[in-house]
Amino acid sequence: MNDQQHDFRKYRPDSQAWQDFHARHSSGKFFKERRYLLKEFPELVSCGENSKLLEVGCGNGSSVLPILRGCKNITVYACDCSSEALVRTKENIDRTIGTLDNFHSFCCDFSRSEFPNWVACHHCRDNFKLKQHSGGSEGMQVNYKCSLNEHCIGGVDFVTLIFTLSAVPKEWMPRAIKECFSVLKPGGLLLFRDYGLFDMTMLRFEPEKLIGFREYLRSDGTLSYFFCLDTVRRLFTDAGFIEDELENCCVKALNRRKGKNMYRVWVHGKFQKPF
């Protein structure tokens, strides 16, 4: 390993890199709605009334939008480590759908800190909504201590991790997944999609960008990790999840502007919290 790689290995990102990223891409050109999510995760469409979903790492809202459009029974709570990303998400929702009562966002870095109590507690969640409607700051980290019980009650029915975990340092992934596990109801589902091993993006990285095993540092300071199925299986089962589905999705797409084929590899997974 050369000196430059050694220096990169010491690098541990904070939310500022993503804050800067979303500020640079505020024009909306980077935004591309992930319309395939409802087809890949049909449980979202067929869920019962008053279901609740936590989108972790919502970015500019590219995953939230199709869920809000196609899942009328779901209330979506979306978080990101970047307050700038939450602004972009709200702008995209307001522009394409309008003001919604079933969408709420908050700022949280799940790889470093716990989710607010209200994510897993009905009573605390109602207090959070009241604070938002009374003029509370959108995107602020808000935590409530439950006044009903020593332990909060409730939880969410779904957690979505869509191209989020790959941006977390590898050694922080186990605690981040356990944090997701803690806010799910028993029987709840975590829906996962992220970069797979030998995806086109991985093959385009220069060798000097490699900072660890399958872990790369982009020029803008953000991280990207590329998963194999065994790594994903181990991470989630070690956190207490039961594997429901886990497979590679391989897609060949044509870049019409450049006239080149693009070979994409993603990991698709569904993991359940035991009853």
Automatic annotation (TrEMBL):
It comes from the Eukaryota. Keywords: Methyltransferase, Transferase. One of its GO terms (molecular function) is S-adenosylmethionine-dependent methyltransferase activity. It holds the Pfam family Methyltransf_23. The keyword Iron-sulfur does not apply. One of its GO terms (biological process) is methylation. SUPFAM superfamilies: S-adenosyl-L-methionine-dependent methyltransferases (SSF53335). CDD domains: AdoMet_MTases (cd02440). This is tRNA N(3)-methylcytidine methyltransferase.
